[in-house]
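QA checklist item 7 of 12: single-chain prediction sanity check.
[x] sequence parsed
[x] length recorded as 248
[x] structure emitted
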Amino acid sequence: MPPLQRQPLRLYRFLVGLVKVVAICMGLVALGLASGYVAMLLAMEKDRVEVPRVVGLDSVAAGALTQEVGLTPRVVAEEFSDKIPKGHVTSQRPGRGTRARLGSEVRLFLSRGSDQLEVPNLASSTLPQAQRSLAETGLSLGQVTQIHSDLHAREAIIAQDPPAGAAATRGTTVKLLQSLGPGEEMVTMPDLVGREMVTALNLLRELQVEARMSFEQSVSRRGHVVAQDPPPGGRVKVGGQVTITMGE
């Protein structure tokens, strides 16, 4: 082969060899970097441990297990839970399986128990007693309605809403119906002025009220009622007193 034709072939072979050398060098550099990264990760992992699962455990057991692997437990809050018993862990931060530095904190959230309560029986109790019972249970006093009742003592609780034994969320208000005691029967006074004494007394007797009599000089109305208290149309309790003034 002529010398002029050999020169491009040599140049080509040189460039191919150079590319191979560069590729090998780059590969070695990359391998070195990867090895360094792995070594760094291994060095970092030496002071790290895996966080255990403590959800569902009581606070004492959860704390002991956390400390056993070299971490520090800390209770940060309490929350209501229908599934986790009171005093047991409902959640944790960081979660199970996380790699954490030795001595770092694992925050624990404890259960306060269910927020579903049973409404107490308040029947026959007084309002202060009912209010105290509701507060102790975790419920609140709602509207109190008062009515007269011949069957229940004054101030006694007659009924409640929600009823006794019902399930209620903590903080629910309970409405009460309270007795004012037996109602007082009232009668309306008729007009007695001008009536004879016997007639007036008979009318009052029929109304079941007592007559209290007084007298004043009145020649024109002798033996008749000249005044009354309460006046006509007034209201008086059954068994109460009515004052009538007779002319003499």
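[x] summary fact logged: The chain has four domains: 1-41, 48-111, 116-179, 186-247.
[ ] second reviewer sign-off
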